[in-house]
Structures are given as structure tokens and as C-alpha cells.
Description:
By secondary structure, the protein is α/β, with parallel strands linked by helices. It has one domain: Histone deacetylase domain (Arginase, Chain A, 3-Layer(aba) Sandwich). The chain has twelve helices and ten strands. Strands 2-1-5-10-9-6-7-8 form an eight-stranded parallel β-sheet, with helices on both faces. Strands 3-4 form a two-stranded antiparallel ribbon. Helix 9 runs parallel beside helix 10. The longest helix is centred in the first third of the chain and has 20 residues, at 95-114. The mean pLDDT is 96. The structure holds zinc ion. Zinc ion binds next to loops.
Amino acid sequence: MRSTGVIYNTNHELHDYMLKGFPSPESPARLQDIMQHFKHNNVFENNNCKVLIPNSASSMDILRVHTVDYFSFVRSHSSTGGGWLGNDTYLCEGSLEVLLQAVGSVLEAGKAVATGKCDNAFALVRPPGHHAYADRHSGFCVFNNAAILAKYLQQVQSCSKIAIVNIDAHASDGTQDIFKADPSVLCISVHQTPSGFYPFKGFIREMGLMPALGYTLNMEMPQEAGNFEYSIFFEQVGLKVLEQFDPDMVILECGFDSYYKEKLAKLNLTLDGYYDVVSRICGRWPTIALLEGGYHEDLGLLADVVVQALADNRYTKDEVDQMNLLASRQSSCRRIFGNKLNELKSLLSSYWDL
Ligand SMILES: [Zn+2]
């Protein structure tokens, strides 16, 4: 069994849309459900996890990525009671405290892996981060957890090359924008096609800017794509590019809304699909998984399976009948997927050997 660190932000309930009367699927119940599932199913014990203690991030940590003006805005807006910010994002009075502890937890997870205390780690934090830009919030996200971790690993833990892999159903637009011209950070995002789907970015042709052209990869998955398509993508593109880039560390933006039960997206990953993707990555590179989105009743089960993948200790069986799932979907899914994959491969072939 691999040694796995798990950390969660204990004060996350202070970031609660109900306190402000806004409707949002990004609620404290998400992390409460995961922690309850972990407790009832002895996930920490079964996987021999090291439970890490969260710390609050400092302003210096946040400012490695975010602008001074934006950080001041979040701080003052939160301390004066918060409110609706637009772009599906809210702040409450306690939000700054929660956000700093979420980032601090992510950094603690990174430190544990970078210093060899654990082989891999999973930071269960909220709100998510991958839609946050250097100077703006978006899509429930205020601070970009993955980007801040990448900068921390480079500047404090002397990692040179970092890969950030997003498997949330929504494109990792904030993270990609932050690193679009930085060839020391490879950004791979596999998500539901952004045509008519939030964040309306993350098309295959978005490949970064000089001197990092080719270091941003976007795979647009057609609606209903699932385990099979993810497996093919990683085999034929994702893992090949990762091998050539050869990162010191992988940060996995682990959203659970690519799951077949998610109402906010239309992808079909199941437990097997999540296990497969995570274990292929963490079996090869030290990996820090971060919770991103996911708004259905099986978050606990999925987080459990991700811990099993990180620990190399699978025992939960996938109950979904894959043949039924495949039979129920549109026949165009496989064809569109094949075309998109070919388009991506041909654009990437100037930069990577595929
Ligand atoms: Zn999402």
C-alpha cells in the first residue's frame, strides 16, 4: 500500500450560501457528506491514511498567484459581511478564514508529499479553485488552490516542473490562464465540451502562449463520454505528454461532477473510471489530489475510491453495469470523441511525440 495523506478544512461550514440567502449547489453539505462517509466506512483506517492538520495560508502564499488588489478586495468584502459577487460566486463574513484554511490545507498536503512524509495526498477542501483567475473569482471559486500549490512547490519546495491535471467536468480555465505562458507548468484539462457549457473556455485550440505554446492541453469530451473515452485519452495523449514533460509532482484537480449521476454535467465516469485515471497518474508520479466540483449524493463514495487509488488498495466494487450505460447513450458520442481526439493529436504533434 502507498502512504496517503488526507487533509480537510475543518472550518468550511463558515462558507455557506444559506448565511446570505443565495441558492448555490456549492454548499457545506458537500464536504460534510464526504467526511460522514469516511467515518462510517473507516476510510482512513482501511487505507492507513496519515491525517494531516490544516494550517492557514499566509498572504504571501496567496500573493504568489493573486494580485494585491484582488486579495484586498476579497479580504475587505468578506470582513464587511460578504455578499453575492456575480459569476455564481458568494462570500460570507467567515469566508476569508475558510479560504485561507483551504489553501493552507492544500499547501500542507503538498508539503507532506514534497518532503516524503507521504507518497500521495488528497486535500478535501471547499470552495473549489480551478475557475479563479489571478485577479478575479468565478464559478464558486475565489482563490486558485492548484495554482497557489504549484507556485509554492516551485518556490518553497524546489520542485521545478509541475503538471496540473483537471478531471472536473468543467474546464480548468482559471488555472490555465495563470500558467498560459509558463512552460514549467503543464496544464491538462479533460472536460465536457465547453460549447454552450460553463466556463465556455477550454477548447482544443487553446494551447497556451509563447514560450509555453503546447503546454496547455484541452480535451473536449462529448456529452455522455465515460470510462472508455477517458481511458483512451490518457493512453493516447495524456500519459504520453506527461511522460515527456516528466513532472516532479502532479496536482490533480479532482472534480466529481464528471460522474454519471451529476445533474450539472452530462459525463458518464463511474467509480472504475475515477479509480483508473487516478491510479495511472499517482502510480507514476507523486500526486496531490484536490477536491474541485461535484454536487450529487455519491461524493463520499468517490472520494473514498480516490483514496483507494492513491493508496493502491482497491476494495470497493463498481456497481454500474457498463454495458447498460453504453447502450443507453447516443451513438454519436464515440464518433465525436474520435474526431476530437484526432484534432487534438494533430495540433499537439508539433510539440509532443504522440
Ligand atoms: Zn465542475
